Amino acid sequence: MIKLxxxxxxxxxxxxxxxxxxxxGAATYVTLDSDFNMSDFTQDIDVLVINTxxxxxxxxxxxxxxxxxxxxxxxxxxxxxxxxxxxxxxxxIGAELAAVLNANSYKQIHFIPAYPEMGRITKNGVHxxxxxxxxESIFGNxxxxxxxxxxxxxxxxxxxLIPTHVIxxxxxxxxxxxxxILIHDSHTSKDMERIAHTLxxxxxxxxxAGCAGFAALLPxxxxxxxxxxxxxxxxxxxxxxxxSIHPVSLAxxxxxxxxxxxxxxxxxxxxxxxxxxxxDNALVNEILRSCEENPVVILNANGPGEPEATYQYAKExxxxxxxxxxxxxxxxxxxxxxxxxxxxxxxxxxxxxxLLYQFAKQTGIKAISPICELEKGVVxxxxxxxxxxxxLISKSGGFGQESLFTDLSKQPFIRPMGSKHVDxxxx
Length: 427
Prior knowledge:
Blueprint: E1 4-8, H1 11-22, E2 28-31, E3 47-51, H2 59-75, E4 80-84, H3 93-102, E5 108-112, E6 120-123, E7 126-129, E8 132-133, H4 152-157, E9 164-167, E10 180-184, H5 189-201, E11 207-210, H6 212-215, H7 218-222, E12 238-242, H8 247-258, E13 263-265, H9 268-271, H10 282-293, E14 296-300, H11 308-316, H12 321-341, E15 347-351, H13 353-363, E16 367-375, E17 378-385, E18 388-395, H14 404-409
Parallel strand pairs: 1-3, 1-4, 2-3, 4-11, 5-10, 5-11, 9-10, 12-14, 12-15, 13-14, 15-18
Antiparallel strand pairs: 2-16, 6-7, 7-8, 16-17, 17-18
């Protein structure tokens, strides 16, 4: 029986939230199907995660999608619902929180948006990334979903008339009679734990929202725990496909290339025209050879002078902003598919939710099972790809330290099958 439904607006978010449950032994199933039939689902799972892919939709479409899913979950008898939001509050935050609340009989939804372990905290209703108010940070300049306000009530009120309340205290006496969206301040992991404890022991509603940070506390809160998974042994080689233009992702690629990692960069024309990708593509063959010879290889959609060079090419060729966003990840998805079909002997690491979603959509992957986090925000999952199980690594563009690829290559689970552990270093 499904005990918990998590509704996420993008694919990497669905995985980095779902893995918080699977890491505690909950059987977790992530689907890309917004029309998923929860009532007739017979597989024995504890947690269902639905990726709605609504971050880039308009507010009305996002609201209707989330409202419909919530209603169907209630009709299916699922006792708990968690609305997963972006850790830096991109997307249709207010509209989707309103949809979950309006589809229920509850009068309040508890919104805990912080993720202290990733540098995202909330003080007096203002959200921060690494100490900077979110709208003033790099996330305020996101080319597709810029965050316009740092004050969370302002973000929500721009999308819904439902009242908001900023909660500074952990005792439920402060919030039990309030109606609407309750935004909880959280500066540290201990703050999050105190909020969870109060929600567990109080008589407040169980309608919850937040990012992967608070989701890590759900297994204990809701009693959804089991035998914890064992991290599988992975290949010593890693292929990284980066379609993200986030400065964090670009810095990670730059750090790796400075340490000698081979990097292949697509030109603006190549990443906006898939016709050059054939069954015996020269670049595909070159990357395959390089993956055999090197512990880490990068395929990057963003070289020097980007993204400006691509914006200029798109303008000259009449390519819209939406076409730009979808075509780049489509080309990258076809490249990954071609590499896998030709026997890629490396762990495939997809950076950016749009890329992961597009790859799954193009290849017919309907569902994916998160296994564990290799590092915070870096998720190892398993999927059925053309009749065989494959493992995929994913992360959101803004997650991870600069030396992430180097650090991952030294982890004890990265080793040849059947061998003793040997550190693989990138010089």
